[in-house]
Amino acid sequence: MPTIFARIIRREIPAHIVYEDDLVIAFLDISQATKGHTLVVSKVEYQNIFEVPEKTASHLFGVATRLAKAIQKAFGASALNILSNNGELAGQTVFHFHLHLIPRYERQDDNLFKLKNNQGNLTSDEYKERARLIKEALS
Ligand code: AMP
Predict the structure, then answer these.
(1) CATH code, 122
(2) How far apart are CA 132 and CA 110, in angstroms?
């Protein structure tokens, strides 16, 4: 079954599209977590970042950069979060790769995201081992 975003791409359901090219499309997130909250979506229905080819991802990020600046200009946002949920455990609800661009305006938006800080619970060796495992997986 096509994702809701694939249906937007095919114009089967409406959306407020702000950008489109051969590889990506961007439209307003229906939730508008903040004013101008925009999604940048790959046209191919990759489920998440684990499936996206690097070339598509880098193009998508380039478009996101352009859009971030446009959103800042359009609404006078003083800051902006880029968020991507990948996998159900990470909070993904639409399984079609996308970035959220979430402009920020006020301190009261602060509790949109709160990351846990585990710095005090980790030894230097644990950091080293985590970095080693990632570097090993890259090669
Ligand atoms: P995520 O939870 O990271 O997968 O994000 C999915 C996002 O898609 C949510 O923020 C939804 O508000 C948004 N969304 C779902 N349906 C639509 C739609 N028809 N048009 C625009 N955004 C949508």
Answers:
(1) 3.30.428.10
(2) 33
With a 6 A CB cut-off, is 45 part of the ligand 1 pocket?
no
State how many domains the chain has. Answer: 1
In tens, the pLDDT along 55-75 reads: 999 999 999 999 999 999 999
Tell me how far the alpha carbon of residue 53 lies from the centroid of ligand 1, in angstroms. 22
Strands (E), 14-72: 17-20, 24-28, 38-42
* pTM metric for this prediction: 0.94
Question: Cα–Cα distance between 129 and 135 in angstroms, integer?
Answer: 10
Q: Is the CB of 15 under 6 A from ligand 1?
A: yes
Q: In the chain, what is the greatest distance between 2 CA atoms, to the nearest angstrom?
A: 53
In 3D, which of 111, 19, 85, 136 has the Cα closest to residue 9?
19
